[in-house]
């Protein structure tokens, strides 16, 4: 099954039936609760017994937000899917939920939020679902608005499923550009099923207090059966294969792809026209692997 981000925009993918299926799966409930507990731990809120005002970005039907309520905090949930939010309201979650697209910025007052979590949602920003969508601009708007609404020194912990290194780097770059310090905490790095990445961001410059906590299992200890049981049944917690249509290889009239001689001839023509063309080498027009 391809990953959800490759199937449809989030507000379409999480329609009434998918939202209900998601929220009634006992495996999803269990996995999202476990990830949310860990995100809350990584938020490292002061242990002063005072309830905090937190954000749950991409809150869905409120599975992640419930963990915040259970720990005595107030929260505001933000999501683009009306169907997910309808279920959150139906389930009478304690947070206030808002319909909105994080890629357009959160639109909250500056400095009013004590911390933010986001569980399995931010990777959606890496996909352009409309001609007006530019993932980099959307990441910029999101991280800029997140930075502004957090109080100084507050943390945001974003658990996400990037499809590849390019996406991870792009997300990190825009977080840093917005002014955050921090990095990625990886739990269970040696388990393909249980491995989870958390972007742990602090609002403000790096300091001793902003040092990153260690990931679970970094020292080689094994994860419990419970942690290791995340499987493809949960479409947000699995290992997915690339499923975007591959670019068609250009072929000539005889149905063969253009070879090295053709590339060399074209380069020569370009040189003759006075264009700046890289020198020929043993790599010119080499065959590439199917994936790289
Ligand atoms: C896998 S669900 C996770 C829901 C919830 N955090 C949980 O743990 O159960 C991902 C959620 O991200 C939301 N989402 C995706 N893109 C979004 C966007 N641009 N703005 C707001 N929410 C978005 C989806 O609508 C969906 O509800």
From TrEMBL:
Residues 244-259 have a biased composition (Basic residues). GO terms for biological process: rRNA (guanine-N7)-methylation. Residues 265-275 have a biased composition (Basic and acidic residues). Keywords: Cytoplasm, Methyltransferase, Nucleus, S-adenosyl-L-methionine, Transferase. Pfam families: Methyltransf_11, WBS_methylT. PANTHER family: 18S RRNA (GUANINE-N(7))-METHYLTRANSFERASE-RELATED, METHYLTRANSFERASE-RELATED. This is 18S rRNA (Guanine-N(7))-methyltransferase. It comes from Rhynchospora breviuscula.
């Amino acid at each position: 099954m391809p990953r959800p981000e490759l199937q449809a925009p989030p507000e379409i993918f999480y329609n009434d039936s998918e939202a209900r299926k998601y929220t009634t799966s006992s495996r999803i409930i269990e996995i999202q609760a476990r990830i949310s507990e860990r995100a809350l731990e990584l938020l490292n809120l002061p242990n002063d017994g005072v309830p905090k005002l937190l954000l749950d970005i991409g809150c869905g039907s409120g599975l992640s937000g419930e963990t915040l309520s259970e720990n005595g905090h107030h929260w505001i949930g933000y999501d683009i899917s009306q169907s997910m939010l309808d279920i959150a309201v139906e389930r009478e979650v304690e947070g206030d939920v808002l319909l909105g697209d994080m890629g357009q910025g959160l639109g909250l007052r500056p400095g009013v939020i004590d911390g933010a979590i986001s569980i399995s949602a931010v990777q959606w920003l890496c996909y352009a679902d409309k001609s007006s969508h530019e993932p980099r601009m959307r990441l910029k708007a999101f991280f800029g608005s997140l930075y502004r609404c957090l109080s100084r020194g507050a943390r945001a912990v974003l658990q996400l499923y990037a499809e590849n290194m390019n996406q991870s780097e792009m997300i990190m770059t825009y977080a840093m550009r917005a002014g955050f310090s921090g990095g990625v905490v990886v739990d269970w790095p040696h388990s393909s099923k249980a491995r989870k990445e958390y972007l742990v961001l602090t609002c403000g410059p790096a300091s001793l207090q902003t040092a990153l906590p260690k990931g679970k299992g970094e020292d080689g200890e094994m994860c419990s059966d419970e942690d290791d049981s995340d499987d493809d049944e949960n479409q947000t917690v699995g290992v997915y294969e690339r499923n975007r249509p591959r670019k068609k290889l250009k072929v000539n009239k005889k149905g063969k792809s253009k070879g090295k001689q053709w590339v060399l001839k074209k380069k020569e023509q370009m040189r003759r026209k006075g264009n700046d063309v890289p020198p020929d080498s043993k790599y010119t027009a080499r065959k590439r692997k199917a994936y790289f």
